[in-house]
Input
Amino acid sequence: MLRPQDTATRERKPLTGLWRFRLDRAGEGRSAEWFKGPLANAQEMAVPASFNDLAADPAVRDHVGDVWYQTTVWVPRGWDGQRVVLHFESATHQATAWVGETEVVSHEGGYTPFEAEVTEHVQAAAEARITVVVNNTLSWQSIPPGVVEDTPDGKRQRYFHDFFNYAGIHRPVWLYATGRAHLTDVTVVTGLDGANGTIEYRTEASSEGGAEVRVVLRDAGGVEVASGTGASGTLTVENVHKWAPGDGYLYDLEAQLVDDTGELLDSYHQSVGVRTVAVDGIRFLINGEPFYFTGFGKHEDLTVIGKGHNDAFMAHDFELLKWIGANSFRTSHYPYAEAVLDYADRQGIVVIDETAAVGMNMGLGGGIFGRQGYTTFSPETINDHTRDVHAQAIRELVARDKNHPSVVLWSIANEPESDTESAERYFKPLFDLTRQLDPTRPVGFVNEVLASYGKCRVSQFGDVLMLNRYYGWYLHTGDLEAAELAWEQELKGWASEGKPIIITEYGADTYPGLHALIAQPWSEEYQVELLDMNHRVFDRIDAVAGEHVWAFADFATASGIVRVGGNKKGVFTRDRQPKSAAHALRRRWRGDDTAQ
Ligand code: GCB
Output
């Protein structure tokens, strides 16, 4: 699937703004066919945004089930005879869409795009009605999983991950047009050969024969540097300007579909960063050079709009990454908006790209210990069907993000149960699948402490070890000396495996403005001291190839007695103001003792 764009042959119309919106409290909309006419008793709802926090109403915030969205759009008059497509960048977690009275598409999975050709259901220069029902229910067969429990007070959604289950239409929706003959996919894989770069490209097209593919590669200044013909091939760029961390240099590959008279049928632009990624022993290499990750696990999480994408906040977050000296982040715990990955490509920020497989561990609840009363892997809970859904989530992630130079590593799950035979059986085929889909990038999963060194049965499948550890917080709370000893001991064990280790989470909840002369948990001083303790340990162990603090910013969670207005492990507050730890990290990562 190609992302909508405007080119010489393509045109798109954003369907963002205010849509009609209605909660389906009784779950009656589908049988009552609410798509058949204007949505009755509707309020207005912003798209993109999570619906939860927009209304000042707990019934909206905590709604479980269907919600309905509807808009109308004038199909541009120039689109007569064109192929018209309705494209959603995401809908969380499940959606079905109608154009007029015709169902055109259904999709499962809250963080990847889907689309439908709607040529037959719309007319140029006429209005079309688009209705979407979005369902936010999590089950044992969804990624992430959850369960709806019957309580004396009605049904309650439970889930096992530590962020609020925001839902709705979180990313832009587009109506776009192409010619009947059009490109359907472009894949690029880059390599380096001395001073030269290579770009293997592969295109797919839907056309009635006779059409040929031509590709033109231009540098960032628009100068043509290579070209080729054929649906696939390899281009060479002499004296290539590499894409590298901190240097987001991009070429533009234009793929053209041309008929036998030379007429341009389709044109699509794919940005290309020429770089290589490899694992060599305990080193993680980008362009053959050891790369040390500094940065964060993040969230798509904002006040009012929840997980709605917002360009201003995105740009600001990247400014903060630069300010603090971070070179990377992980898309914890789901694929982020495509605009974020495009931005990372341009900014030279490195990304660990994660699926939405989080909360698959009944020994934990949102990263916190305590059994959840279920068995993780069983025919009634996470089972073969779940694994099929998980596999599909991996397919959709790789298909969407395969061309981003910023993406250097796939994370196929966060903190699943991984110390049991069932876990080993569940995960082995998913690692195989990911490697088959993308042989060019390392693959891993994020391990948690219940499967500490010596116990984990899944890390054997990873090219890198990604560890989330809360020594000094959930373990040895308030005792950083004991934490340091225990952490170093465990880490030395992992180091003996001979793979690069990325510490994908470490941190402490910190209430901004709370100070303690003798550092105590929740104070700004304690967060600084806990990070310092971690850094001493990392600096003593060669195999540590990166440090991602949890978390970039404070974020919303389900209510709980260890959460004060959400998860407060942010180095920035939810409104992006620095805690003391931000200044300390800046000094470490920028190597600048004078950084304030
Ligand atoms: C974890 C999870 C993350 C939580 C974090 C915490 O291990 O991966 O989602 O938010 O711990 O703060 O407990």
In short: The longest strand covers residues 182-193. The mean pLDDT is 96.
